[in-house]
Amino acid sequence: MNSSERTLPIWVVVMSVALLTGLQPLTTDMYLPALPQMQQDLRLSPAQAQATLSGLILSFGMGQLIWGPIADRWGRKVVLRSGLSLFVLASVLTVLAQDGHTMVLARVAQGACLSATVMCGRAMIRDLFPPEEGARIMARGMTGLGALALIGPITGGLTATWLGWRATMASLAVCASLILMFVWLFLPETLPPQRRQTQLDWGHLLRQWGSIARHPTFRAHTLLTSSTYGGLFVYLALSSFAFINILQCSKAVYGAFMATLSLSYLIGTFFCRRWLPAHGLIGTVALAGRFSLAGGLYMAAISLYSELFHLPAAWALLPGMWLYAFAHGIHQPCGQTGVVSAFPQQAGAASALSGFVLASAAFAVGLVLSQLTSLPPLAHSIHPMNLGMTLGGMSTAWVAFTLVRKHGLPPQAAD
Fold first, then answer.
1. Where residue 415 falls among pLDDT bands split at 50, 70, 90?
2. CB-CB contact of 255 with 359 (8 Å)
3. HEC string for 39-75
4. What is the mean pLDDT of residues 343-363?
């Protein structure tokens, strides 16, 4: 770090990463226990219910393409404050929505604003640290993210049970307001003027993104984060219906099940911090790839069991999900640090492009799922969720064992 950046306490950096990136799982996870209730109350079609998640993810990806270059040009602070303020307003709109179209629109607005916070949370790490040290700091922040992800579904499930789905959406607005307050009071600008981009036009941006996309380190880590999140998105999109409607879990029990996955993710971030000094970034990702593969294969085995014998108990699905979430807690800090590792002066643009690819892949997964779950043999089964996570685990392992092993660090990893 340069002399002006050493004055920023590490606890502020770690807390900022935890809160800024943690708002994403809060936005996606907290409302899931309330989704069946919301669908019934607003008379959402299955496609509209799916769009409350897939639409948010798509706008989350597209928004980063706008916020990223702006943050590289004018700094992180103005983007963070603007994005969080607009996110609070969009969250209020979800509480007041009276029909499916308004709800989907509000969720799309949430995704576009959320993209500013997550993108800046990733980019500020590259502002302050070289890649491997940044991965350790990111892992510490992701531990805080895991804690938020642990609290989110429990809060969502209990709030939906006791107070209804609108109270669940209101609690998200409150969380975002508290994060905005923290950013306003404690987080200074992390991008020094001498490292800011001097141009902001579409021709320059397209050339910049083309250059970033051609870098093998960027491609390796972008595919890593996209594949591991792709499997997780399958869980996010289908788990509430699988556990509540098919496996007959209550909202509170489903929220508790989700919390155990967040705990597994949290444990994964601790192991990430321990493994990085001993195995390096590439070796740590390879170790986590084995857990991704094991979790995916377990989910496939559960699907096979349900076909040959009978529908399993809900808890029987958890070990495979725990393995997958544990590995996700390692892949995410390593991958999100890796995508910006080669671009100290373009961290916002690289983070934005990687986030766009990730969100586009998740949106494509959502489109496929909406088609698969409309087919009679799959409409009322656990197979789309299980086999989607199997595909995510296998693809993540392949990327970890091949592309990241070969291109995981840029030739010049430090400033």
1. very low
2. no
3. HHHHCCCHHHHHHHHHHHHHHHHHHHHHHHHHHHHHC
4. 81
- Dig out the tokens for 380 from the structure: 């009322």
Structure tokens at 307: 């076909």
Would the pLDDT of 177 be above 90? yes
339 with 399: CB under 8 angstroms? no
Which of 125-158 are b and which e, b meaning 16 or more Cβ less than 10 Å from the residue's Cβ? Answer: bbbbbbbbbbbbbbbbbbbbbbbbbbbbbbbbbb
CA–CA gap between residue 59 and residue 61 (Å, rounded): 5
| Mean of pLDDT over the chain | 86
Over the range 326-347, which residues count as b (16 or more CB within 10 Å of their CB) and which as e? bbbbbbbbbbbbbbbbbbbbbb
Contact assessment for residue 44 and residue 100, using Cβ atoms and an 8 Å cutoff:
yes
pLDDT of residue 302 exceeding 90: yes
Q: From the CB of residue 40, how many other CB atoms can be counted at a distance below 10 Å?
A: 11
Helix (H) or strand (E) holding 381: none
Find the DSSP H helices in 373-402. 376-379, 383-401
Q: Are 61 and 115 in contact (CB under 8 A)?
A: yes
Provide the 8-state DSSP code for 312.
Answer: P
| Calpha distance 324→327 (Å, rounded) | 5
Q: What ranges make up the beta strands (E) of 97-141?
A: none
CA 177 – CA 84 distance, rounded (Å):
8
The residue type found at 355 is G
In angstroms, the CA 25 to CA 23 distance is: 6
- CA 155/CA 29 separation, integer angstroms: 10
Model confidence band, residue 163 (pLDDT cutoffs 50, 70, 90): confident
Count of beta carbons in the 10 Å neighbourhood of residue 289: 26
Interior angle at CA 114, CA 392 and CA 212, nearest 5: 65
The number of beta carbons lying within 10 Å of the beta carbon of residue 201 is 9
| Pair 17, 115: CB distance under 8 Å | no
